[in-house]
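Standup notes, structure subgroup. Blocker cleared on the zinc ion input:
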Amino acid sequence: MIHRHSSVHQLPVIGLILGVLLLGSGALIASEPAASPSPTAVPGGIYRWPLPEGAADLRFNTRPVLTRGAEALVGLPLSQPLGPAEITYRLGDQTRSHVFEVSDKAYSEQHITLKNREMVNPNPEQLARIRRESSRQRALYLAFSDRTPPQNGFLRPLEGPVSSLFGHRRFFNGEPRNPHSGLDIAAPTGAEIRAPADAEVTLVDHLYYNGKTIFLDHGQGLITMYCHLSEPLVNEGETVQQGQVIGLVGATGRVTGPHLHWSVSLNGYRVDPQSMMSMLVPGDAD
Ligand SMILES: [Zn+2]
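Run returned:
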């Protein structure tokens, strides 16, 4: 374990480590520190930070950061190096920084066989389309609207078994590809997909890999994406309420069967949707 303690608010971290060490030595210690460190400060996770009073203009890698109530939620990319990472912020007329520790998470491998080879090695024309679409999606993920972030939890958009976890290191027909940037939920074609929280619809389109796709903007850099739909049921620019049906499950784009690919993005980085669901609990933003 590597630790950098530069300020008083990180003292609970030391408390937890002491607790763990004492437990390890067989002592009966049950005292939890008042504030434990974020268990998900891992690549692809979310770092939750209780804000110092008066902190403003928070940034991570120069990107604005979501704040709600007295805390900040910072999305960490899957490519985030382990070790210290930094949030900068303003306090009065001073610029300050808060250093936190990113620890390792072992993501497993997943091997997928696709019969349609154009989905593994697209031709030049298809590649041009894919590049256009991915730069458009990147821009949508970097949006930072002033809409109020979710105050009433963050719902699972669809019932059904998880068929692929976020963060899997993936191989298509043996060739390494980017890690899995969302959560796959298996469900029959036509199953209803619901908005996890209030949002504005920022994209409805048919994309090469993602098939029929919807983007939702939940405010302050929290963006979600729904892929492979058989049918979207919303329009760009529309406002949707938490729990509203936004589309139907399908098998469009690069898929082996009907399912929902659900991506959750925070400050422009795809994070584990399951972390977001466990972090945003109804009523906790008061
Ligand atoms: Zn997926």
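Discussed briefly. The longest helix spans residues 124-141.
Next: hand off to the docking folks.
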